[in-house]
Amino acid sequence: MYYRDPSGAPRWSAVPKTDAQGHAFLPVYEADEPSTQPAPKPVPDPSRKILYYRNPMGLPDISKVPKKDSMGMDYVPVYEGEDSTDGTVKLSPGKIQRSGVKSEPAERRALHVLVKAPGVIQLDERRVSVIAMRSESFVEKIADVTTGSFVKAGQPLMQIYSSAISSAAAEYLSTINSKTTGTIEAFGRGSRQRLVNLDVPEETIAEMDRTRTAPVRVQWRAPRDGIVLERNATEGMRANVGDVLFRIADISTVWALVDVAERDLGSLSVGQKVTIRARAFPDRALSGTIAVIYPQVNRDTRTTRLRVELANPDLKLLPDMYVDAEIDVGGDAPVLTIPTSAVLDSGSRRIVLIDKGDGRFEPRAVTLGRRGDGIVEIKHGVDEGEAVVTSANFLIDAESNLKAALKGFAEAADAPAAEPSASSHSHSHDHTGAQQ
Questions:
Q1: How far apart are CA 337 and CA 375, in angstroms?
Q2: CA-to-CA distance for 430 and 62, rounded, in angstroms?
Q3: Which range has the worst mean pLDDT, 62-76, 77-91, 138-152, 355-369?
């Protein structure tokens, strides 16, 4: 519509321009143009006692008598009863409506809090077997089994020849072929144990008992159902004592090792239910329980490891596969809660505003518990059914700070003039409080 002087002086321009200091005139739009009707002057209520007059712009300035500010606006009277001494803040209905103040009662309800953490699939240590030689041997034949093959318990893996096994077998046969009963009981038991100590399969020993002949080669079979993780055997190779030729793992049950943050450790316990989702199959939720909480904290990541046992009947969960875990630590027991938006957090304490009705609001310190789903648990400070402000609480908090500042200036103004040192001290103290 036009341009006005940036200093507030009564100078206008129809086109953009600058003042003597080089500051640009400010544009005034049609929506900004004030009404041509003069603002109504505050009319004192003769039936109520006026305590003081406050600055109409909210500045911490009061007066004992009616006056105007630098822009010609009348100071607003503050009546007895409006300046509450019980710690509450009182707002007019119009201000409450303009601010959009909303309240909600504190109520008891189940609070579901999810602890989320990443993890990785690992083998169940109790379901891993190795085939290692207990004597110097030679691998003569290997079945059609490779790394990654699925084998059944008892399935042939390889045939080996060992001079130590052949010697022990001959000794055993000579014992069981003897007709001396005492020799069989005393010496025969020891020679059979020697075969067992060499890890000769029980079925091979039984076959020797039946046929009374020593085998040239010994058949080695899979000790369990599972996946071949390692195949180190090669036909014709010599295997030394202790060499691992096969490593087989049963992955029908696997572990999910989950790393949870140190701050969540206090809400976890063995037996809690865990939902696991593999990143390879995000739409598939697997259910398990916490089996072990490892007794150490990683000093670098500040996490603690949990072990969750998972059934894996279709064998889709593979070792080293990444997963995401969700643990509900809230429980089903109802607790007293309020919306999270109702809490004013100053860093050192948490405040909520209690709606006392008739435009009165009481600031109150509270002790909080767990958070989740947009609500927070209240341990101390609010009773069930009390209404707390959930929106525009920052505006009410600002109003309370302003009133505290005005009250401080009023007390400073009322200080006896005959005691300058006390008055000066009181004013300095209250001014500091107003700044805070």
A1: 6
A2: 14
A3: 77-91
Beta bridge partners of 63: 53
Q: What is the CATH number of domain 114-124+251-328?
A: 2.40.30.170
Residues 6+ apart with CB under 8 A from 1: 28, 29, 30, 33
What single string gives the DSSP state of each residue in 337-385? EEEGGG-EE-SS-EEEEEEEETTEEEEEEEEEEEEETTEEEEEES--TT
What are 258's two structure tokens? 């989950």
**Strand partners for 260:** 304
Rounded CA Rg of the chain:
43
Q: Is 398 helix (H, G, I), strand (E, B) or coil?
A: helix
Quick one: tokens of 250?
């049963």
- In this structure, are residues 258 and 293 in contact, taking their beta carbons and an 8 Å threshold? no
Which token pair is 223? 């000790």
CATH architecture label of 101-109+334-436 = Beta Barrel (2.40)
Q: How many angstroms separate the CA atoms of 137 and 205, rounded?
A: 18
Give the strand pairing for 114-123 and 218-221.
unpaired
pLDDT category at 325 given cuts 50, 70, 90 is: very high
Separation of alpha carbons 59 and 337, rounded Å: 37
The CATH architecture annotation of domain 134-242 reads Beta Barrel (2.40)
Place of tokens 């909520």: 352
* Residue type at position 416: P
**Is the pLDDT confidence value at 427 over 50?**
no
Helix/strand/coil for 411 = helix
How many helices (DSSP H) and strands (DSSP E) are in the chain? 7, 29
Which tokens sit at 335?
Answer: 């607790």
> How far is 41 from 66, CA to CA, in rounded Å?
12
